[in-house]
Fold this sequence. Notes:
The complex is a heterodimer. By secondary structure, chain A is α+β, with helices and mostly antiparallel strands. Helix content of chain A is 56%, strand content 20%. Chain A folds into two domains: 2-45 and 243-378, no CATH class; 61-226, no CATH class. In chain A, helix 10 packs antiparallel against helix 12. The two termini of chain A are 27 Å apart. Chain B has a domain at 4-94 and 163-233: P-loop containing nucleotide triphosphate hydrolases (Rossmann fold, 3-Layer(aba) Sandwich). Chain B has helices at residues 46-53, 76-86, 102-107, 117-130, 146-158, 176-193, 204-208; strands at residues 4-15, 18-30, 35-39, 61-66, 69-70, 87-90, 164-168, 196-200, 212-217, 220-223. The chains are: A alpha+beta, B alpha/beta. The A-B interface holds A 3-4, 6-7, 10-11, 13-14, 279-280, 283-293, 371-372, 375, 378-379 and B 51, 54, 56-57, 76-77, 80-85, 87, 89, 91-95, 97-100, 104, 108-109, 111-112, 156. Adenosine-5'-diphosphate sits between chains B (13, 15, 20, 22, 40, 42-48) and A (372-373, 376).
Amino acid sequence: MFKFAPYLLKTLWRHRTRTLLTVSGSAVALFVFCFVLTVRQGLQRLTQQDDSVLIVFQANKFCPATSHLPQDYDQVISRMPGVRDVVPIQVFTNNCRASLDVVVFYGAPAEKVRRVRDFELIDGSWGEFESHQDAAIVGQALASRRGIQVGERFSVGDVTVAVAGLFTSQNRAEEDYVYCHLDFLQRTRGLDLVGTVTQHEVWLEDSANPEQAAAAIDEKLKSGQIETDTRTKGAFQASSLADLIHLIDLSRYLGWACLFLMAVLLATTTIMTVEDRIGEHAVLQTLGFSTRHVFRLVMSETVLLSVVGGCVGIALAVLALSQSALSVGAEAVTIAFEPSWDMVLTAALTSLVIGLIAGIAPAARAAKADIVTALRFSG
Amino acid sequence: MALIHVNQVTKQFRKGAETITPLKEAELQIERGQFVSLMGASGTGKSTLLNLIAGIDKPTSGRIIVDGTDITRLSRTKLAAWRARNIGYIFQTHNLIPVLTAYENIELPLMLLPMNRSERRRRVEVALTAVDLVDRANHYPRQLSGGQEQRVGIARAIVTDPTVVVADEPTGDLDTETSAQILELLERLNDELDTTLLMVTHDPDAAAIAERRLKLDHGRLIEHAQAAAPAVHAGAS
Ligand SMILES: Nc1ncnc2c1ncn2[C@@H]1O[C@H](COP(=O)(O)OP(=O)(O)O)[C@@H](O)[C@H]1O
Ligand SMILES: [Mg+2]
């Protein structure tokens, strides 16, 4: 079939306006599809991760601004079986509702941040962060979105921190957060929060059962001054993002619609091509081309259009996603929109399949057309 | 044994309620190397017969045997492969692929045969030389005159060295002078390459160059007397 590549390319070039329009349309459709995929994957990463990490929150509270747990719960929890480490965390966010530009401050004991997170500093130093009360390290995505640099001061509302470092993380969602000292965040906001935290992050031993451990913690703290609600980090983030998850779930239909439109566009173009060339295909068959040859020629043309359009759309989406460092968050949890190889591969494969589906009927029609009739009506 | 046997061939077309029968139990035998012309009024079934022999259509009944193969029994796929090897088809008009150059058009049927690029090149060059268009190899159909286009069509039909070359009114769209050139070319191919040629035409002068002339009338083939209009080369062959 490669022998006929020049014929194929020349045919597409001859109808270059049509070719260009179809490729552009397919590119736009796949661009949007990539966004949808990326958002869904971001969400999936967030809610399916960290089964061995639990979040202890105040029972019946949803926004981090309203959850207040005694800090010394960490002592109780850390003595429980199966618990490896407990990190008391004070959370401060500028916006509890769903927003595209959430800034979230996590106040935690500095040495614990370094221990339990996989952060790598791309600028600044851990020493700077650990030695200054008002120091903070800022995620790379947030920093690039807001233009934050090491050495600057950065404020949101009443909170002002000195930027001691910028970090990257395997978990792109982390790169939307600011980490500062726990006691600094407890003191800084005029509220008397000393001694209380928003949540405790509990790291379990590998052997521990997360559900049982969570139930045990809630049971143990039932007798304490404030009741708790403990879930795995994935489940916790899923419930924080519940409203968004609903919306993101709807985006699935947007994705399907894009693919459907792309298929319609490609099929229309292919039908036009086939009708234009009834006579040409009859001539080819007279020369000895089989129905299979003609079928494959038409299919190749459609698949080429869809894959080229798809690749352009994917490339643009990857560029846009990685440039914009976009994320959406709610209740101090953010979903990062990060392009992944998985997404690229899925999208590329999808464009191939769409091309095959769109081409199949017109190609079959072209191949099966009666030679003599076609010659009589086009010659 | 004749190269082509048309044996009791009937072809019917259905047009709504009525049935047209352009060929009724037609009989024809063509020897290898013969140049046969086929005349007849418009709509008598000349193209239909030609298409049956070329294997792009199937008879309602009867058999067509070409070089020992009963082509009426071949599947559509097998028939396509058979055409690629055995048939050269010269159309009346509009038959070149517009996006391909003269060279690429002529090369096209060779792509279907097991042949490497250099062998294809050699064959295309021979065919281009035969039709005297070596200097137009890289021209596109729209850059060629009607006569040149038709010569490319002829080169494409002979490039595979087929068993039979059929031509359906090859001069139908050309002016007198160009027609004469094309006819002369066909005659030369028949002479020099010993190509078996079946040509449909409605032009008596064109028909006259063939060594054997047939007329289709009411579904039957009538042999024309050789003496009626002696062809120039009749004595030579
Ligand atoms: N595919 C077809 N469908 C219906 N009728 C056809 C078809 N092909 C040919 N015919 C009819 O058969 C008759 C012979 O056609 P054709 O062989 O093209 O004639 P000629 O080439 O001698 O002018 C005509 O009446 C034509 O209308
Ligand atoms: Mg005709």
